[in-house]
Amino acid sequence: MSYTYFTIIEQEKLEAYFILNFSCRKIANLMGRHYSTIARGLQRNKDNYNSIIAQNNYDKKRKATLGKTKLSRDITIIIEEKLQCTWSLEQIANIVLHKKNKL
User: Running DSSP on this structure, what letter comes out for residue 3?
Assistant: First the structure.
């Protein structure tokens, strides 16, 4: 089974249940999640659970794991110009590959 992180709505529910001092198991039952998922979420944001801070932390970590783009500003401009001129994707790909080989 794959792991999915909390949505912003789930983050807010978790914060509300945390404020109400519900146990991890009770929160898990209410949210339809495994209790260990809830415990990990609360553990990651230990002191005072805040849904906005938790989501921002997740976004930062997620962004750090993503690879960097291989598109430069020059190539992006070329692609946009050729698309406006109704070039086919194959034509654009050939010119982009040719340009990359020159760099």
Answer: -
